[in-house]
Write a structure and sequence with these properties.
The complex is a heterodimer of chains A (118) and B (113). Chain A is mainly beta. In chain A, 0% of the residues lie in helices and 49% in strands. In chain A, strands 2, 4, 5, 6, 9, 10 and 11 form a 7-stranded mixed β-sheet that branches. Chain A has a 4-stranded antiparallel β-sheet with strand order 1-3-8-7, with no helix packed on it. Chain B is mostly beta strands and 113 residues long. In chain B, 0% of the residues lie in helices and 55% in strands. Chain B is built from no helices and 11 strands. The relative contact order of chain B is 0.33. The chains are: A mainly beta (118), B mainly beta (113). Chains A and B meet through strand 5 and strand 10 of A and strand 5 and strand 9 of B.
Chain lengths: 118, 113
Amino acid sequence: NAGVTQTPKFQVLKTGQSMTLQCAQDMNHNSMYWYRQDPGMGLRLIYYSASEGTTDKGEVPNGYNVSRLNKREFSLRLESAAPSQTSVYFCASSLQLVGQGIMNTEAFFGQGTRLTVV
Amino acid sequence: ELKVEQNPLFLSMQEGKNYTIYCNYSTTSDRLYWYRQDPGKSLESLFVLLSNGAVKQEGRLMASLDTKARLSTLHITAAVHDLSATYFCAVEGGGDSNYQLIWGAGTKLIIKP
């Protein structure tokens, strides 16, 4: 059972470089999320996709873009990395069906991407 | 705006002791989740609480939900070292938040032999 798979696991970028974090889930979930986790800050939502074809900003979207490529895949792009974006990034998914009644909002997480911007 | 507060944020305790972690939230919600995170690892779902009065238990951990008090507790009985981790609660927001999960800051639990 793969669940939620993120790549890469580790990445070091120079300030100003760009990169895309990939996320795929095989649980037929409708909703997908990108979080960042910083020491002492808990989880902060960057962007989410309630269903295929939709994306919405979360709490800390500045400096990021996302693409919901299909039902399985949700990518996060840093166009011009900054040291403030050094963090651990988690992708998650849930079955949730917005607009069609709530079925299950329990989130399942990928293994995380540890990103350092120097 | 839904806010979720956990306390304590840090807890160091001896093996064999009992303790409770509290999760308070600010607006009405009927769904609450507890997660565990080991150092350097991802988050793992522990308990799903879906209604007032819900109680779930697994091993030395027991979680409960009181939606009227807007409070969930995670009780640890006779703690063992393997339970050392950071524990997060997450509350499902309402339609205004598009039913997103709102997260507590986490409780870092260290259990000493």
